[in-house]
Amino acid sequence: YFYFEQKDVIFINAYLEFGTGTSLPFQKIMFRCFRSFLYHNNDNNELVQLEDEDQINLNTYTGSIYNHFYNGTWQKPVSDTYWIHNDNIYAHATRVDIKRSTSSAIEAFESWSNLPINSRTEILNNLAYTLEHNGKYLLAKTVSKCIKLLNTIHKNILTCQDERLELIAIRAPGGVIPLYHTDEVILFSYLTVSLYFGNCVVVVYSRNSCNIIPYFNMFSTAEIPPGVINLISYKNLPYSAQISHPELIDQLLEVTIPKNIILPLK
């Protein structure tokens, strides 16, 4: 037989008769989105210069200031530049900020994805309780509902069998998942699905997307480990935030990859 580890495929006494529809997910952990964001121009650091009206003196501005969040703490932007939206000030991301937040997620991925799924579920239940305790009832209900549905889906492992082989098809974490949505409820649904299966995420905030910055203290209270949820902000992304409302199963397929276990019956 053979089995899959997190990174490798190990064959033991196998004759490589995989059967129909078998796929081997040789994929590296990678930040699969925002490539145009990372390489928008030839500058080594800045992506797009902020407009003159966004050049802010933090010593004189009286609004709230929000930095990036990665490695479990708030981080000032490398360029030390900010932009204004709804009377608040947000850090302006450069390639360096993005790479640092992604590295934070990749580092956390190994331990988070190797946690037993029951442990990750317990932490997500803590998040639902924390949201409810802070009066965020709709988001708490969203997280709890996702957990219940995912538990059901996870138990229904797809199994195919013939006279020689048994194929068990499951879903494995995709790695680092970027989240960028206009709807707070849908974003929390994506967040729950991503974390349930062992992914880490980088949430991107812009003036066109929903803002989950106020929830990072709740993530900490729920004991979500550092690096599992990261955030960067950027004023003008070169494309729009996601506005669709996909079903849970479609979200699941977006943030996971197929993983097959094949057992010979003879």
From TrEMBL:
GO molecular function (one): oxidoreductase activity
Domain of life assignment: Eukaryota
Name used for this protein in its record: Aldehyde dehydrogenase domain-containing protein
Protein species of origin: Trachymyrmex cornetzi
Lineage: Eukaryota, Metazoa, Ecdysozoa, Arthropoda, Hexapoda
